[in-house]
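Re: the request from the purification team.
They wanted to know what the chain is likely to look like in 3D before they choose a buffer screen. I agreed to run a prediction and write the result into the notebook, where they can find it.
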Amino acid sequence: QVQLVESGGGSVQPGGSLTLSCAASGGSNSVDTMGWFRQVPGKQREFVSAIWRREGRTYYADSVKGRFTISRDRTKNTVYLQMTSLNTEDTAVYYCAAGRGVILSSVPQEIGYRYWGQGTQVTVSS
């Protein structure tokens, strides 16, 4: 069983930066793709970013391109999401997700990931 533990959430001012991390344990070799989704109350969970398989290809939602950067440290089984130029629309609960053998078409889809973190709150306000 894979467990994902998120950290780094908090409150920042508009235009500020924040970095999230997600550490995989309890069978990290069972995953090869990790990503981030976010959700606000009353709305569907949406894809944010992902890093695909061992090739390390990165993918981003249009809403965060140029502002967010996903990276990973395979030796630490940890994925990071560097967020810059944050605005109020980025306020949400951010969830880490992981899967194995994820095909490209499933990268931005919730159903493509088997394991999920508990979520970390990101609040952008003045």
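For the purification team: The radius of gyration is 14 Å.
Please add any questions underneath this entry.
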